[in-house]
Amino acid sequence: RFRLEAQAGMKLNHPNIVKVHQVFEDNSTAYIAMDYVDGPDLLQSVEGTAPKLTPDQIIRFLDRMLDAVGYVHSQGLLHRDISPDNILLDKATGQPVLIDFGAARKDVTRQSRALSGLRVVKDGYSPQEFYVSGSKQSPCSDLYALAATFYHLISGETPKTSQERLSAIAGRDPDPLRKLSGRFKAYPASLLAAIDTAMALFPRDRL
Q: Choosing from 26, 63, 67, 81, which is the catalytic residue?
């Protein structure tokens, strides 16, 4: 799995994705050589241990992350672990950088059984299909996680887990996730609506 992470990273060349340069084995273990990104992650920003981001910065960073995730998907990969702590803010460039491709996999049905069984779940950010081993995952799964990350940045609220949401709907209760639309006037209404749509519980309803 470690080597697979390196191989996935070495295929990617994008200014907003951490660059992997080399993977090698020595001392009975393996190593990945990658760029060092000096700066806080988005979780530190939302939690207040790093400078708060302005609405203009958040909009700009979301645009860059959409471009980066779109590029990942164009290479036939899913990241599968997008969350605020996996996006760093590079002090040198002022740009967000997506890291940690340890859960990445080919967006095809030919995965090895071991890899397709690998589950990485982060409550609040993972869509409901990530909780079920062997479930169908697609680019909209990554977009759910990216939307949940920026939902947290915009609202300051940790998103309700997709399992909480699924349980509520199964019990015929309202979805406990509060939509962004209509709540934050510093952001374009279309952007808030897009995040809400990307966070739809069921893949068929997402972007």
A: 81
